[in-house]
Amino acid sequence: MTESTAFYCRRKRRGDSDRKKNQPSRPFGGTVLFYSNDRKLTIVQTIYMENYIEDSILFLDGKFLKAKDAAASLFSQTLNYGYGAFEGLRSYSTIHGTKIFKPYEHFTRLKKSCELMNIPFDYSLEELTQLCYQVLEKNSLTHAYIKPLVIAGENLTLTASQESSLMIYAWEWDKYFDTREVTVCISSYQRPNPKSTKIEAKVCGHYVNSILAFSEAKQRGFDGAIMLDGNGFVAEGPGSNFFYEKDGALYTPPAGNILMGITRQTVLDICAELDLPVKEKLFRPEELFEADSAFFCGTAAEISAISSIEGQELNKPWKASLGLIVQEAYKNIVMEKSHAYVIV
To answer: Residue 35's domain spans which residues?
Structure first.
């Protein structure tokens, strides 16, 4: 195999300006190698996750490989058109050992996403779950984020591919947001029209929309964003669902323009068990400026407190909010500490 072209892209990291000139710097962007004779793209470095190492083990089509040895086709519909599906799961070091939170629910959604997108995918829920545990074990991970990715086969036309590949990789990822409480803006980017795509599927290409919204928020100096639907109602964050509190009740957007999150359903279940009032309804962004508190929820974000919207602080401190009750209950559930939620 002859290497024909190498491309390396590095983004500046916080603290780089203070780095000594002769001090080696760890790669932060991504390195990809193109090979001339097999049409394969080999990923040597990935973005942002600083604890990624080349010798980490992933699963790819029936084999466990080092990340530096894994390859995907340059002609895949997933690479060329974003036509693929994925999930994001978390594992926790619980009192009963390493446990993946709600794997069956996640993999039921993954299989449904593939079905909706006409991507062939025949793994069972049990097979997928066991593969994830094996990836964790082979990488000595306990508290981790796990990403199964269904990659459509080689096809440069716009007809659905008749084959697919499965990759599962994992890394240690503590917090989605860098801050304990998040500042957010109202994004200028809307969620996709549900008549334009399968909005209920977790599809790779949908996240171009999320990247644009998140990047815009960062450029404006915020930690995150709230996206609206095509009718101007609040929908969700770029990678998480949204709740706000007002007058002793929680509110969240209904199905129709959002991805129905696994964590979102867990929050609804917590509210039902703790008799916390919660309503699914449409609401305008103007209503948020009267909110008592608010939070994002998702597998990566978990329960993330929001401190302000467009620079305006919310009425309640997080420690006095219903969101904190939900957050503490969620921690107990994922850590398997107790079925009796701690209310503070």
So the answer is: 3-171
